Amino acid sequence: MAYILDGTYISEDRLCIHPANRGLRYGEGLFETMRWRDDRVLFFSHHMERLRKGMAFLDMGSSTDLISSLPSQIKRLCTAYDHLTSARVRLNVFRGEGNLYDTAPVHYLLEVAWEPERSWQSFEGLSLGIYPGAQRGLGPLANFKTNNYLASVLGIRYAHAHGWDEALLLNVAGRVSESTIANLFVIRENILYTPPLEEGCVAGVIRRQLLECLPARGLSVKESALSLEQVQQADEVFLTNALRGVRPVARLGDISYGSQLTGHIAAILEETTR
After folding, report:
1. Burial class (CB in 10 A: 0-12, 13-18, 19+), 136
2. Where are the alpha helices (DSSP H) in the chain?
3. Which residues contact 108 (CB under 8 A, 6 or more apart)?
4. CA distance 227 to 212
5. 230-254, pLDDT tens digit by residue?
């Protein structure tokens, strides 16, 4: 991997963290995972808008200077790191050293790693289950990608232990919120449904892109709270995230789904990246 810490290129063996770092102690930080392809970050403005809102919510000061410097820094890393044409870019913004009541300085770490170049239309259907061990909160903090990622970490571990690719997370009201690393869409009678942000899901970049572009293609998309029963009764189910785009779901437990319209939606998303 290649790294930039607070604007300075740094090798992996020089990275270190202070024991009083608030990002480590309290999870006080945010991250964005982005896809670099064809010499640019896909949907960069969407990522930055979410980051800007998250930093404001956490009272981390102005994000203007950081955001304006990122395109050149990301390109520098991708160019230096084997001239990558396809990469995973991860930005972590976090507070530095301080006790619980300090207003510690804000730092950022930018890292780049090779990501296989693949079409967002090429994924096989996923197998899903339900993770019962954690519930998503309903407040606005749930809409950001914060350093407190335990529900997702435990959920994906639980999924793999049970032989699934992924797991769905329920919110505190018992409704389906999202999966461990992706937003959820279901299709019933050619209408798409996805939980609104008030249901505790992350304000996903691909989720937003589909909500904006699909109606213009003649598809009906509705934000609606979803019970587990409604997900089970769907004709098709798919997940979305910034690295892998649209991922069809083949089954949830013993229930199987089709993927015809999902494939069409993946093709539309692919078109929006060109």
Report:
1. buried
2. 22-26, 44-57, 64-80, 150-161, 205-213, 228-232, 260-272
3. 5, 6, 66, 91, 92, 93, 94
4. 24
5. 999 999 999 999 999 999 999 999 9
Which amino acid, one-letter code, is at 185? F
Q: Quote the CA–CA distance of 126 and 186 in Å, as a whole number.
A: 14
Contact between residue 95 and residue 22 where contact means Cβ atoms under 8 Å apart: yes
Higher pLDDT, 21 or 84: 21
Whole-angstrom distance, CA of residue 206 vs CA of residue 211: 9
Residue 38 CA to residue 97 CA, distance in Å, equals 38
**Which domains, ranges and CATH numbers included, belong to the chain?**
2-114 (3.30.470.10), 126-272 (3.20.10.10)
pTM given for the model: 0.94
| N-term to C-term CA, the chain | 27
Place of tokens 């959820």: 184
For residues 249 and 260, what is the distance between their CA atoms, to the nearest angstrom? Answer: 11
Using one digit for the tens of pLDDT, what is the confidence trace for 6-20? 999 988 888 888 889
Count, residues in the chain:
274
- What span, in angstroms and rounded, lies between the C-alpha atoms of 238 and 164? 15
Give me 223's structure tokens: 């934000």
